[in-house]
Write a structure and sequence with these properties.
Blueprint lengths: L1 H14 L5 H8 L3 H9 L6 H13 L6 H6 L6 E7 L4 H16 L3 E7 L5 H9 L5 E4 L7 H9 L4 E4 L9 E4 L2 H15 L4 E5 L5 H16 L9 E3 L4 H12 L7 E4 L2 H13 L9 E3 L16 E3 L2 H20 L7 E3 L3 E3 L19
Helix pairs in contact: 2-3, 2-4, 6-13, 7-8, 9-10, 11-12
Length: about 375
C-alpha cells in the first residue's frame, strides 16, 4: 500500500504540469546538464538535441524553477524588444515568435512600442539603462540613425533584425533582400510580364533599397527598362500601399503586374484593383514580400517571398541568450546571420492577357 502511495506521489507533480528538469531529461534521453544548457546557452547544443529537448519541455509543460535559480544567484535574463508604431503584420508574426521562445528559455522579454519620428531614441536610451541584458531592434528602428547612435553608446549586445548594413558592428539577422526581390522579378518575367510596377517600402530602411535594387537588377538582366512612373513610394503600411497602387493603376499606361515590397502593401494593391473594377489575377498580377499571416487571409491568396519571420524571432532570442553569456565572460564578437528565403506561388499571379494562349508554368 505504501509503495502505491509513493508511486502516485512521484508522478503527481508531472500530472499537475509541474514537471522537473529530471523529467525532461529522461523523456528526451539526455542528461539534466544538457537540458540546462538548452535552456540557458542553447546555441552550445546541437540542433537535433536542442529540438528534442525543447519538444519535451513543451510536452511536459516544464517551467524552470525561479526560486532555485534565485538561491543559486543566477538572475533571470532580460531582453528588450523595440518595435515601431504602426504595427505591421511582419511585426505581429515576429512578436509571437519572440514571446514563444522567451517563454521556453525563461527569458523576460521587455517589449516597447515606439514612434520612429518622436521618441524612438529616447526609449532606446531608457531601456538600455534599465538593467536590461540585451536589445533587439526590429524594422525600421534597425536603420534609424538616432536609434543606432544610442545603440553604439550602450555597453550591451544589440541585435538588428532585417538589415545587414551594420554587420560587423552589431549582431544582425536578415535575408538576402536583393536576391529575393530579384527572384520574384524573374518569376514575373517568366510569366510574360514586361511592364511591372514596383512599390517601394519605408525610405529609411536598408531593406527597402535592397529590394528595389534587386528588382531593377533583374529587370536589367532581362533587358527590360523600368520607367520612373512605374516605381511608387510606400512605407510598408496598408494605407501607403493603397495610395501607391491607385497611382500606378491610373497612369496612362498602367502595369500588368505590381510587385509590392511587403504583404501589407500587396493586399492594399488588391483592394485598389477591386475598387477600379480589375480582377486579380485575370487583369492584374499582384505579388508581395514576407509571407506574413495576411498573405493567406486575402482572396486571392498572395504569391509572395517567404522570409521565415517567426523562426527569425526564435533565432533572435536564442542568439542573444548566447551573446549575453559571452558578453559576461568578456567576449563581444558579433555575428551576422542570413536566413533562407523562398518564393511562394499562390493565386494572385498569372500571365498578362496577351500571353494567355501559352500554358502557364508554376514553380
Amino acid at each position: 500500500m505504501s509503495g502505491s502511495n509513493r508511486s502516485a506521489k512521484a508522478h503527481s507533480a508531472t500530472r499537475r504540469g509541474a514537471a522537473t528538469i529530471g523529467d525532461v531529461a529522461k523523456a528526451a534521453g539526455v542528461s539534466k546538464m544538457t537540458v540546462s544548457r538548452v535552456l540557458n546557452t542553447p546555441l552550445l547544443v546541437g540542433e537535433e538535441t536542442r529540438a528534442r529537448v525543447l519538444k519535451h519541455v513543451a510536452l511536459l509543460n516544464y517551467v524552470p524553477n525561479a526560486s532555485a535559480r534565485a538561491l543559486s544567484g543566477s538572475a533571470r535574463l532580460r531582453i528588450g524588444l523595440l518595435y515601431n508604431r504602426p504595427i505591421s503584420s511582419y511585426i505581429v508574426d515576429y512578436l509571437l515568435g519572440a514571446i514563444e521562445q522567451a517563454a521556453l528559455l525563461d527569458v523576460q522579454l521587455v517589449s516597447r512600442v515606439v514612434d520612429l519620428d518622436s521618441n524612438a531614441a529616447e526609449v532606446m536610451e531608457q531601456i538600455a539603462t534599465s538593467g536590461i541584458d540585451a536589445v533587439i531592434l526590429t524594422p525600421p528602428l534597425c536603420d534609424s540613425p538616432s536609434v543606432i547612435a544610442v545603440a553604439r553608446r550602450v555597453d550591451l549586445p544589440v541585435l538588428l533584425v532585417g538589415t545587414d548594413r551594420l554587420a560587423g558592428s552589431f549582431f544582425t539577422l536578415s535575408i538576402d533582400e536583393a536576391g529575393a526581390a530579384g527572384q520574384m522579378t524573374a518569376h514575373l518575367l517568366r510569366l510574360g510580364h514586361r511592364r511591372i510596377g514596383f512599390i517601394v517600402g519605408e525610405p529609411v530602411l536598408h531593406a527597402s533599397r535592397a529590394r528595389l535594387d534587386g528588382f531593377k537588377a533583374a529587370m536589367a538582366d532581362a533587358g527590360v527598362d523600368v520607367p520612373p512612373e512605374l516605381v511608387a513610394q510606400g512605407s510598408f503600411t496598408y494605407k501607403s500601399g493603397l495610395v501607391a497602387a491607385e497611382h500606378l493603376l491610373t497612369i496612362a499606361d498602367p502595369p500588368s503586374a505590381i510587385f509590392a515590397s511587403n504583404d501589407d502593401m500587396a493586399v492594399a494593391t488588391i483592394m485598389a484593383a477591386h475598387r477600379l473594377g480589375l480582377d486579380v489575377p485575370r487583369d492584374l498580377t499582384v505579388v508581395g514580400f514576407d509571407d506574413s499571416w495576411i498573405a493567406t487571409n486575402i482572396s486571392p491568396e498572395l504569391t509572395t517571398i517567404r522570409q521565415p519571420v517567426r523562426q527569425m524571432a526564435i533565432d533572435s532570442v536564442t542568439l542573444l541568450v548566447q551573446a549575453i553569456g559571452s558578453f559576461r565572460c568578456g567576449r563581444s564578437d558579433v555575428a551576422a546571420r542570413v536566413a533562407n528565403h523562398e518564393l511562394i506561388v499562390r493565386c494572385s499571379d498569372a500571365p498578362p492577357l496577351i500571353e494567355r494562349s501559352q500554358p502557364r508554368a508554376r514553380e
